[in-house]
Design goal:
InterPro entries: DNA_helicase_Holl-junc_RuvA_I, Hlx-hairpin-Hlx_DNA-bd_motif, NA-bd_OB-fold, RuvA, RuvA_2-like, RuvA_C, RuvA_C_sf. Keywords: Cytoplasm, DNA damage, DNA recombination, DNA repair, DNA-binding. Residues 154-202 are annotated as: Domain III. It is found in: Cytoplasm. Residues 73-92, 108-127 form the Helix-hairpin-helix DNA-binding motif class domain. The chain is of the alpha+beta class and 202 residues long. Helix content is 47%, strand content 19%. The chain is built from nine helices and five strands; from the N terminus they run βββαββαααααααα. The chain has helices at residues 32-37, 66-76, 83-92, 95-103, 107-110, 118-132, 154-164, 169-183, 189-201, and strands spanning 4-12, 16-21, 24-30, 44-53, 58-63. Strands 1-2-3-5-4 form a five-stranded mixed barrel. Helix 7 packs across helix 8 (169-183). The longest helix has 15 residues, at 118-132.
Length: 202
Amino acid sequence: MIAKLRGLLDSTGIDHAVIDVGGVGYLVGASSRTLAALGPVGEAVTIHTEMLVAEDSIRLVGFARADERDWYRLLTHVQGVGSRVALAILSALEPAELHRAVATGDKAMVARANGVGPKLAQRIVNELKDKIGAAPAGGPIGVGGAVAMPVGNMSTDALSALQNLGFKPAEASAAVAAAEGELGEGASLDALVRLALRKAAK
């Protein structure tokens, strides 16, 4: 699992950047907010990443800040919110704004993002409201700007991988839990995902 890249900004596009790490160029999808925060081409950058594993491809999505990545993970666990829509939301709203919108039930704020209609905005608010805690008064979310939810651990990454392959949240969660129980705490993410895939496919 690639969690972070540090290198030189090689180039940027409308929805992606290329990060040169030791002569290898990594294509990273990103929100307009993240792309704007990276700075000029040729400069050193550090970008937090989420790896999307599909049957026929592996893609990276990048974020200027870790809390943006945390919100991306939360958003993509909502039914109907894929990577493109999640990035559109993060382009329109910074994490603190999104936190306040969800916590206060402000679906109109969420619907400002391209591709997000009123029904989807309402679903996002409904599904995430109980997971994020109270709305921040302003500034960072929780400690160090992190979403008040355990993210970034092995099971979360495995769950994300299965859902990106098309498994429903309940199916993915059950498969990952079963795989964790069988493999124990010392298992690698790769082994966990492979076993969870076999269990989910049964």
